[in-house]
Design goal:
Blueprint (H helix, E strand, L loop, with lengths): L2 H15 L7 H9 L3 H26 L4 H4 L4 H17 L1 H14 L7 H18 L3 H27 L12 H10 L3 H19 L5 H32 L10 H13 L1 H33 L4 H19 L3 H27 L7 H22 L7 H4 L12 H18 L1
Length: 423
């Protein structure tokens, strides 16, 4: 594989991860992080960059589909996991794209309700999903470079024109807050989903390429894409931190991004950013609904009817959730993410480590442990933390909503090494 192929694949991966909805998260993180922006950025990039890229490396190793990530636990578990991931995708990140579009592009120009925006938005999504138009593929090639150019100008202008005064942090645990906010990008889930798309694309372009060649291509492209995400996310966090005293402390995520854009590049650039972000949001929604409909279609013997019904359900869910503001959707997403994200992270890591340390037995025990110790964090996210405080006080890191980490690691070490001894 030549450098051009690696560059094209890396940019494709970057574009798939670079969801427009994700852009509203780093600036507010930085805005509230103060002089500890670097610690927040480290945590955010750990869950929003490193783990997703490890997911791509796992795909380079497996060279299969999302189903292959969890099949070592059991085929039934893998199918259930896939259903849950797709259900979350069409219920939360897909509607969030409509909400971001309304707050950044529609509301500032027209005094229409978010419900009207959601209805029109997902009616168009449905038309594109059913007709599988290739227009979005063409438009998509110009969206990411356009957004990236404006963002780099915003970041560069902020860094080179503002004093490096960051204020004080508003977070009690900056590092873990960054990690948990990184969950909201859905990028780890995205890695499990879109990695399979990259595999299919490579196979279609060069069906004769060997396993090792494809693995090398995906690994190199993954690291380059990760570097791009790291630079953009960190740059936006620094930018938000530099504007810590320029906006009201309760400003929304979308308003903050728009406000920073206006202060650095003017209203014209902000208008362009709003349009580009809205178009990118739309392509993301179409991709999510199409991917979900394709999965259900495959489960029902390539039934066109199953595809249409899934597309309709996905768009209805989009309308119902998309009329709420971005902050509300992010809050609603937290419990689901507190449960599914640890499982996803563990599956990614188990598929990355050498196979001799990750037998079927290891997969079963580690995933089971992760599920059990994710329950307290899930209950805490829905306001039931006090009822189980007597239990959680004995779980390491539970105060940071990461009580699953050490138990899962301990079980991995014990079971993997005991399995090696048995051999």
């Amino acid at each position: 594989m030549n450098r051009k192929t690696i560059a094209i694949t890396a940019f494709a991966l970057f574009s798939l991860f670079f969801g427009a909805g994700n852009l509203i998260l780093p600036p507010q993180l930085g805005f509230k992080s103060g002089d500890l922006w670097w610690l927040v950025a480290f945590g955010f990039c750990l869950s929003a960059v490193l783990i997703p890229i490890l997911g791509i490396l796992a795909h380079a190793k497996l060279q299969g589909t999302m189903f292959d990530f969890a099949k070592k636990v059991s085929p039934t578990f893998s199918v259930v996991y896939c259903y849950i991931v797709y259900a979350i995708s069409i219920s939360l990140p897909s509607p969030r794209t409509a909400s971001v579009t309304h707050e950044m592009a529609i509301q500032p120009l027209w005094n229409s309700s978010s419900l009207v925006t959601s209805i029109v938005y997902f009616a168009l999504v449905y038309i594109f999903v059913v007709n599988r138009s290739k227009i979005l593929d063409v438009v998509g090639k110009f969206l990411t470079p356009g957004i990236l150019l404006i963002l780099l100008l915003i970041i560069g202008t902020s860094i080179f024109t503002l004093d490096f005064d960051f204020g004080t942090t508003a977070f009690k645990s900056p590092f873990t807050h960054g990690i948990l906010e990184g969950y909201q990008t859905f990028d780890a889930i995205g890695a499990v989903v879109v990695g399979g798309v990259i595999i299919i694309s490579i196979n279609l372009k060069d069906s004769d390429a060997s396993y090792e060649v494809k693995r090398s291509l995906i690994r190199k492209a993954g690291w380059f894409a990760g570097l791009g995400l790291f630079l953009v996310y960190t740059g936006l966090i620094i930018t938000g931190a530099l504007f810590h005293d320029s906006f009201d402390t309760e400003i929304s995520r979308t308003s903050l991004l728009s406000g920073i854009s206006i202060k650095t590049l003017g209203s014209t650039a902000n208008f362009m950013l709003s349009i580009l972000v809205s178009l990118a949001c739309f392509t993301t929604a179409v991709g999510i609904v199409t991917g979900t409909a394709d999965f259900i279609k495959g489960r029902f013997n390539d039934s066109r009817q199953a595809y249409i019904i899934t597309a309709i359900i996905g768009c209805i869910l989009g309308v119902l959730m998309g009329q709420f503001n971005v902050g509300y959707i992010i809050a609603v997403a937290l419990p689901a993410l507190m449960f599914i994200y640890p499982i996803t992270i563990v599956l990614i890591l188990l598929n990355v480590v050498p196979s001799k340390y990750a037998s079927n037995k290891v997969f079963k025990w580690v995933v089971a442990t992760t599920i059990v110790f994710s329950v307290p964090d899930f209950l805490g996210s829905i306001g039931l933390g006090e009822s189980i405080s007597g239990i959680t006080q004995w779980i390491p890191l539970s105060q940071f909503h990461m009580g699953w980490v050490l138990p899962a690691f301990a079980v991995f070490v014990l079971v993997s090494f005991s399995s090696l001894k048995e051999k």
